[in-house]
Amino acid sequence: MKKKTDFLDVAVQPDGRVPKLTGLNFRIPPAEGGSIEGRLFRRMLKEMDGPPLHFVLLWSGEEIPPLNIPPVARVTIRDRVTLLKLIINPDLHFGNAYGVGDIEVEGDLVQCLEAIYRGVARMSGNAYTKRLSRRLNKKRPNTAAQARDNIHHHYDIGNEFYKLWLDERMVYTCAYFSTPSVTLEEAQTAKMDHVCRKLWLKPGETVVEAGCGWGSLALHMARHYGVKVKAFNISHQQVLYARERAKAEGLDSKVEYVEDDYRNISGQFDALVSVGMLEHVGKEHYQELGDVIHRCLKPSGRGLIHSIGRSKACPMNAWVEKRIFPGAYPPTLREMMDVFEPWEFAVLDVENLRLHYAKTLEHWLARFERVSERVAEMYDRRFVREWRLYLAGSQAAFTVGDLQLFQVLFSGPANNAIPWTRAHLYQGQGE
Amino acid sequence: MKKKTDFLDVAVQPDGRVPKLTGLNFRIPPAEGGSIEGRLFRRMLKEMDGPPLHFVLLWSGEEIPPLNIPPVARVTIRDRVTLLKLIINPDLHFGNAYGVGDIEVEGDLVQCLEAIYRGVARMSGNAYTKRLSRRLNKKRPNTAAQARDNIHHHYDIGNEFYKLWLDERMVYTCAYFSTPSVTLEEAQTAKMDHVCRKLWLKPGETVVEAGCGWGSLALHMARHYGVKVKAFNISHQQVLYARERAKAEGLDSKVEYVEDDYRNISGQFDALVSVGMLEHVGKEHYQELGDVIHRCLKPSGRGLIHSIGRSKACPMNAWVEKRIFPGAYPPTLREMMDVFEPWEFAVLDVENLRLHYAKTLEHWLARFERVSERVAEMYDRRFVREWRLYLAGSQAAFTVGDLQLFQVLFSGPANNAIPWTRAHLYQGQGE
């Protein structure tokens, strides 16, 4: 029903524009497959192995139901230009058009996007894939200055916005669900413990955090593991918020938040942790990150990098990269090795938490929907639609396996003071 | 004391040659650093940051003690030619010379080799490293025919030989020690269970094994996890032995041993397992292996590859490759991705069991020493010395971090029927 309301939103204009009602005369679909663009579109759908979606071309009234399977959603495309753009670059234009209401989805948005992603995956070897691989080689500098702009774009939207739908401690990375039914709060706590246990933290040790969000992990480590933390972040809003929390919780002598780039980390630490930053580093800077880690980690030190990744190299979805996360890139494990190999860091443990991120996003999306009216008041309806699409699209991408979530634990080449097994991660959880 | 006896073996001639006693007049070391080759050797030791070894040049009586640290071993080099060869290519000639008794080690052989490996690691950027990287690009075809010869060289030495010092089930791969103190037998059983749990085996499922050794894992899976196994191996001796065991244990209807190359695997299976084969595949064949896995794994299938690896690309020790394991190559995780990426297999879990292999080799070496007289009777003293060096050198390489042991669990890109966490691996072991 909710999605039905969304559809009606188009009529009442999400962004104040007058809806284009040209051709809104629901005709019987033509027997010979309809218009030229309709035929092109059907060919594209055929290449996608026929996703379970029912398309409606609003200007002509043409209806394109799925073949032999029930649809999971009804997708209305408002005008000819939108359809043509979609055929030319679905990766970018689906999001653009959805944002402004030129595409409407009735039914389950997540399932709709899963169907599209699965379909696109089947189109390998065609023009789309070739274009993607060209884009793959596009240089994204992510210099310190550009990185600051990119991070500002997303993370400085406003703490008030994120407070509306994140968990109470504002953890904006993949949670860890011991079972799918635990709450988001429990799962975020479990994730922090999982990370701390992997890092084998001992009281009195020092930890440096690269990219600390609103500071929750640093506080958790200091409070529950007795370590001192120096946490770096280039998001001004996040650092201000984190410092206030540390003070309020009496942990400001244990946790120092530094508003600076990871490249400027100095000092030597027992552990390094970076949860959800590597996506923003850019692969041409991985070796530089490795140099920083080598410089700041003691010979007995352990490090953990938690990052969205891929099973095969492919750029971030063009629309997400443009509208949501400029400069972002989810690496493959192969690409991540640029961080570790030059200094012969030994990879000790890689865990793929893909399904955990799908579940985290399911929670975020549900919470977001509950406050969407409030968000629309703070920003506008387009903002709501774009964030809905981003959250739903991310959930879909993790669900179908387009995105992975890797936690990589590593240590220096000659560190033999590492845990003998991983059993300590599961103490009390084994039965 | 054992090692002392080894040293005396030189005098009584390990290979029947008359020992060269030229210069066996223990002179006071010359004040100015001695002979030219002695000075060259001292420079090499300096580049190695001065390993804790006491060298004796037997022909001149020159003694080269370590600087400011007590030695872990006394290394006697018999003649000038041996020393010069050692300076030119220590990687190859240490083993050659040790095998025939031209180098003798008194003290702990494993610690001696650890010191050498650590020293060589510090020589990065010099001529040795450059030569290594040239060798790295050397092509090793490992065609089906060549692979058969290579495998025959090592695994067909004779089942009787391996029976003397492996555990009772003849498991010739890294064991899994829940604690360092468990027995080798317990650790090999634990390893098989660890692998089966990772693969999430369910009764009635089918498993294909690529490279099955003497067949113990296949039997273990069939007996304890209720699966049917088709196990491939190109070692004739191993396959004969494995078939006999399956029959004797009444499991021949559950486990089929096929004497054939992994490239000829056919059929579709719920799981694929390969423990200790990838080292023999050769990195130019990884994609081919990936194609085989893609062909034979069901969409819901899981796979596990267990292999010796590296943190940085580097060829197998030249002597080991020549005398022990022709065609072998331990890959980096980056290189292993050639198996997975082309078909977008999702890496679910990587565990590094480096210290477990060091411990396994410690057991093997101790067992081998207990039967070394028997082995000398079956083969000769050179064979004993080479195998001692190979086992000790491998233990040292895992201990110092020159070698890693990766267990990589993976699945098809869209498989969501994977375990939610890894807690099931540690049931009953968490406390």
Q: Characteristics of this structure?
A:
homodimer, 46% helix, 431 residues, four-stranded mixed β-sheet, 18 helices, seven-stranded mixed β-sheet, alpha/beta, disordered N terminus, 11 strands
Quick structural gist:
The structure is a homodimer of 431-residue chains. Chain A is α/β, with parallel strands linked by helices.
Radius of gyration of chain A, in angstroms, nearest whole number: 23 Å
Question: Structural class of the secondary elements of chain A?
Answer: alpha/beta
Task: Please provide the count of β strands of chain A.
Answer: 11
Name the beta content range of chain A: 15-25%
**Uncertain stretches of 5 or more adjacent residues of chain A:** 1-31
Explain what this protein looks like in three dimensions.
- Two copies of one chain form a homodimer.
- Chain A has 431 residues and is of the alpha/beta class.
- Helix content of chain A is 46%, strand content 16%.
- The first copy, chain A, contains 18 helices and eleven strands.
- In chain A, the strands form two sheets. Chain A has a seven-stranded mixed sheet with strand order 7-6-5-8-9-11-10. In chain A, strands 2-1-3-4 form a four-stranded mixed sheet.
- The longest helix of chain A has 20 residues, at 381-400.
- Chains A and B meet through helix 15, strand 10 and helix 16 of A and helix 15 and strand 10 of B.
